[in-house]
Write a structure and sequence with these properties.
- The protein is of the alpha+beta class.
- The protein is about 35% helix and about 25% strand.
- It is built from 11 helices and 19 strands.
- A 6-stranded mixed beta sheet has the order 4-3-2-1-5-6, with helices on both faces.
- Helix 8 packs across helix 9 and helix 10 runs antiparallel to helix 11.
- The protein is elongated and about 70 Å long.
- About 45% of the residues are buried.
- The mean pLDDT is about 95.
Length: about 350
């Protein structure tokens, strides 16, 4: 991955931001720009140079992971003093910072050391929207592990297994197949619990006739996958069969609407119209999708409020759902790569209703 080019792209934004340098503190953004995977690290990107900062615990790790930047390790005086020194060395007096990720205390600490702090929004996040070939390969590997885990978990659906047990077993299967860990806390929801879009697994046991909603993903070399499948344990009710077919149709309409240059809100509108036309509009209460990469939720998004255009190379989820309190719910989710011609669905298991 050409992280130097990524830093150059951020530096090219400095003039428009009215800044001499950009301070990056959000760890996924630090990793994107520097390759660093530790739990404490910062980067200062200036027009004529860059600095990476961490504390003594990570000196050797950063030497290995950040070989192409000047590395500074701070001790008792802490990061603000080291930042002041680096700004002086680079001739920096105006520093843009990630407004969404800096605490008020940090802002005060830095204000005492830096001439001027300039709040900026999502500058690195926007760079991360478009994935390069290596990033796409890592996301695809995470998705392959996820799909394998889903196939492996289906035989474990048996009467009496609890949501917690199934979620733990699924996460174990992901790790057995090469995941660093789950991309997020697995959602396993049985029966009426499936009516909660982000249900937390409980000791609720599986019974015949239940719908089973599984939302899960794998993390591979820092990159995430996200997939939702809804299956039936025994014969589902007529209404749930109808709802499943409707969600499946809405998802395909959404996938067909994805294309470089299309606004995220227009993709959401296309899929949502299918559900609304069938009278279930109020039962679909979340956005259609979100970007996936170094974070499980990142830009761009597919929602009714997102005016931005989708760029070629972005990876987004398409995940409509219908949720019926006291009955159950259905969500079907896949990741797609945005292309100039439309989109490419990342390899995933078939989406016809599975009855176990």
């Amino acid at each position: 991955m050409d992280r130097g080019l990524r830093r150059d792209r951020l530096a090219a934004r400095l003039e428009e931001l009215g800044a001499d340098a950009f301070l990056v503190t959000h760890l996924p953004n630090v990793r994107y720009l520097c390759g660093y995977t530790g739990s404490n690290g910062q980067a200062l990107i200036a027009r004529e140079g860059a600095r990476f900062f961490t504390d003594g615990r990570y000196t050797e790790q950063s030497r290995r992971e950040v070989p192409d930047m000047e590395r500074l390790s701070y001790g008792g005086d802490g990061f603000p003093a080291m930042l002041q020194e680096a700004c002086s060395q680079l001739g920096v007096s105006r520093v843009a910072f990630e407004a969404s990720f800096l605490t008020y205390k940090q802002f005060q600490d830095f204000s005492d050391r830096v001439g001027e702090l300039i709040p900026a929004r999502d500058e690195v996040g926007r760079l991360r929207w478009v994935k390069d070939a290596e990033e796409l390969a890592l996301i695809e590997e995470a998705q392959a592990i996820t799909d394998t885990g889903f196939k492996a978990i289906l035989p474990e659906l048996r009467e009496g297994v609890t949501e917690r047990e199934l979620a733990r077993d699924l996460e174990r299967r992901l790790e057995e197949h090469g995941a660093e860990g789950p991309a997020f806390d697995t959602i396993a929801a049985f029966g009426e619990d499936a009516a909660e879009p982000h249900h937390q697994p409980t000791d609720r046991a599986l019974r015949h006739g239940d719908i089973v909603k599984l939302d899960f993903g794998a993390r591979y070399d820092g990159y995430h996958s996200d997939m939702t499948r809804t299956v039936a344990f025994g014969e589902p009710s007529h209404e749930l069969r109808t709802v499943y077919a409707l969600v499946r149709e809405a998802q395909q309409v959404g996938i067909d609407a994805v294309r470089a240059g299309v606004r995220g809100k227009d993709v959401d509108r296309a899929a949502r119209a299918v559900i609304e036309a069938a009278g279930y509009g109020e039962a679909f209460g979340h956005g259609l999708g979100h970007g996936v990469g170094l974070e499980i939720h990142e830009g761009p998004t597919l929602s009714s409020t997102f005016e931005g255009e989708l760029p070629a190379g972005a990876v987004v989820t398409v995940e409509p759902g219908i949720y019926l309190p006291g009955i159950g719910g259905v969500r079907i989710e896949d990741m797609v790569e945005v292309t100039d011609e439309g989109c490419r669905v990342l390899p995933a298991t078939q989406k016809e209703l599975v009855i176990v």
